[in-house]
Design a protein that fits this description.
Helices cover about 40% and strands about 10% of the residues. The chain contains two helices and two strands; from the N terminus they run H-H-E-E.
Length: about 50
């Protein structure tokens, strides 16, 4: 997920924009994974479902 891809993921995905934004910001900060309780977001690459 890169740059404006955040918006595209929101449009085509099931999670909220804020979820995709947080995931992208974490990637930019060097995180390999974003942990989430959100089952919808858990299907996104780079997100680990807790």
């Amino acid at each position: 997920m890169k740059g404006l891809d955040t918006i595209e993921h929101m449009k085509s995905g099931n999670a909220d924009f804020s979820d995709y934004l947080i995931t992208r910001l974490n990637q930019l900060a060097g995180c390999q994974e974003t942990a989430s309780f959100d089952a919808k977001l858990g299907r996104v690459e780079g997100v680990k479902l807790l």
